[in-house]
Amino acid sequence: MQFKPPPMLLTREARRPSCLARQEAHFGNADDALAAVREVLTIDASNVNALLMLVDLTIERGEFEKARSTLQVLPRNPEMDALRLHLQGRILMAESKWQDAAKQLLVAHRFLAESPGMIERTDMALTSCFRKLGDQKSQAAAYRRVLKANPVSMSARLGFGGDLRRQRANA
C-alpha cells in the first residue's frame, strides 16, 4: 500500500514558494507575497493554505470581489464553511459594512466552537464591529469571551481597558 499524504501538506515543489509567501506576507511586500502565493497555486491549485493566504492578501489590498471568488474555491466541509463565514465577515468589515459584518461573524462564532484560536479571532473582529456600531455592552461581552479563553491576550486587555476608561470618563 502506497503512502498518500494528507491534502493539507505541501508538495516538495510548493514548500519553498509557500514559505516565501508567508515571510513576505508577514515581513515584506504584499505584492511579493501575492506573487509567491500565485506561484504555489500554479504548482498545486487546491492548496488550502495558499488559498487562505490569497484571501487575506486580497482583503488587505481592497480586492473584495477577488477575495469572494477565492472563497468559493475552498473545499466544502464543516471546518472550511465556518472559516468561510469568518472571512466573509472580514470582507464586510473591510468594506465598512459593520452591521452585516457583525451578523456574519456572529453566525461564524456559532460554527467555530471547536476552534479556540478562530473563536478568539472572531471575537476580536466582533469587538471592532461593535465599537463602530456603538454597542458597548456587546463589545465588552466579546472582550470578556476573548479574555476568558486567553487571559494574556494583549490586544483584548488593552482594548477592554481602554473601553472601560472611556466609559468611566463619559459617566
Could you please describe the fold and organization of this structure?
The protein starts with 11 loop residues before the first helix and ends with a helix. The protein has 2 domains: 10-75, Tetratricopeptide repeat domain (Serine Threonine Protein Phosphatase 5, Tetratricopeptide repeat); 78-171, Alpha Horseshoe (Serine Threonine Protein Phosphatase 5, Tetratricopeptide repeat). Residues 1-10 have low confidence and may be disordered. It is mostly helical and 171 residues long. It is built from 9 helices and no strands. Helix 5 runs parallel beside helix 7 (116-133).
Low-confidence spans: 1-10
Q: First CA to last CA: what distance?
A: 70 Å
Question: Which architecture name of the largest domain does CATH use?
Answer: Alpha Horseshoe
The secondary-structure element order is HHHHHHHHH
- Looking at CATH, the homologous superfamily of the largest domain is Tetratricopeptide repeat domain
Alpha carbon gyration radius: 18 Å
What is the CATH topology of the largest domain?
Serine Threonine Protein Phosphatase 5, Tetratricopeptide repeat
Number of domains: 2
- Number of continuous helical runs: 9
Helix content, binned percent: over 70%
Largest sheet: none
Class computed from helices, strands and strand pairing:
mainly alpha
Shape: elongated
Q: Class of the largest domain, according to the CATH hierarchy?
A: Mainly Alpha
Strand content: under 5%
Q: How many strand units?
A: 0
What is the arithmetic mean of pLDDT?
81
